[in-house]
Amino acid sequence: MAISKLPEVWQRGPVDGVPPLLQPVAHALLQASEEVSEIMADFPGALVQQQPAGVASPAFHLLHLTGVLDRLFTYARGEMLNETQLQYLSAENITPEQPYVIEQLVCAFKKGVDNAITQVKQTDEAILTEVRFVGRARVPSTVIGLYFHAAEHTMRHLGQLLVTVKILTAV
């Protein structure tokens, strides 16, 4: 697993076009994108669905990272999930007959981060405290709350992915 020689994203300065209050969200998501690429670069495809000690597989983490970003950013736009998003959510825990292709999972996550960064860039800071509702239960949050949760949830699963990959490749 190669480790980047670059400073962490937050140490490289502001992300062009991202409002000042949302820089931490952009930094965390871009950092996660880079680290996922590094973590999975040489990972054996045959292990992607393995669950050491019953923990979530690398495939689950990659699917979940992608899905959560999409769902939370949908809610931040004030929208509810569509049928495709609900089907994706249901499939995150299902092991398919055909193994996942790591490059496709990583590419999907990176695209999700790119879409999230585009949305962050288009967000007016004046709406950050506006109420948004999550799920069918319509749990109240705010735009900034959803963005922050997307960033911290992404980093949490990135850490879990890193540990799982290290365990699976330690043999």
Automatic annotation (TrEMBL):
SUPFAM superfamilies recorded: DinB/YfiT-like putative metalloenzymes
Domain DinB-like stretches: 29-161
Pfam families (alphabetical): DinB_2
Protein name (database record): DinB family protein
